[in-house]
Amino acid sequence: MSNLLDLSGKNILVTGASSGIGKGIAKLLSNLKANVILVARNEENLQKVFNELDPGDHSYYRMDLNRLEKIEDLMNFICHDGHKLHGLVHSAGISRTVPVQYLKLDELKDIMSVNFYSFMELVKQFSKKKYHDSGGSIVAISSISSKVGARGLSAYSASKGALESAIRSMALDLAPKNIRINAIAPGMIATQMYDGLMEIANNTDLEADIKKRQVLGIGIPEDVAYAAAFLLSGASRLITGTTLVVDGGYSAH
Description:
Elements: E1 11-15, H1 20-31, E2 35-40, H2 43-52, E3 59-62, H3 71-78, E4 85-90, H4 105-126, E5 132-141, H5 154-174, E6 179-186, H6 192-201, H7 204-213, H8 221-232, E7 243-246
Parallel strand pairs: 1-2, 1-4, 2-3, 4-5, 5-6, 6-7
Helix pairs in contact: 1-8, 4-5
């Protein structure tokens, strides 16, 4: 029986690939023999991740996804000379812990732009025949915050909720093109974002409370990467328009 998780020769674009979950996904995909296109704002970190990938036809591009009008140019550059994409992972995201009464409009716009608007534009471009190889799989990294409330995360939660709602409708739009689209909603994962939350909270009780609710423990980026690889592979060929929760039991309460 063939290995359905084998991604040999697949060209997969990963945003937010310079750190955290995006980095973990990029490294695993290269281990599964995919050709990974890394996109992020921090070029120094992109180079470091690029150097850590398993051998393959990889590349990286520095880009601020806030510049929505440049996303089509990026796709044109990546897909020059007839190159086609087989997959897209949108892991880029920003979060700010701000109670709603102090939330500024510019902060809300920034969060929605990177977390949601850029994803919509990436999907729009990916869906064009000149960019995809007769279909493909799209994965958005959402968050358990789309389902469970937390103080100070109203803007972040809204952006992830928008992702998941849009995916259900986009799955119907994209099915005739043989493109599947899904989300992953991680719980607490040991990344820089998690470390930042702990620093802001400055409360050891918070970490203990999280570990009590997330009964399988705090995750690592590879836990999300395995789920992404599954959704990008032929093993998930009948799955579209849904969210795979990877939260260690957090939302079971």
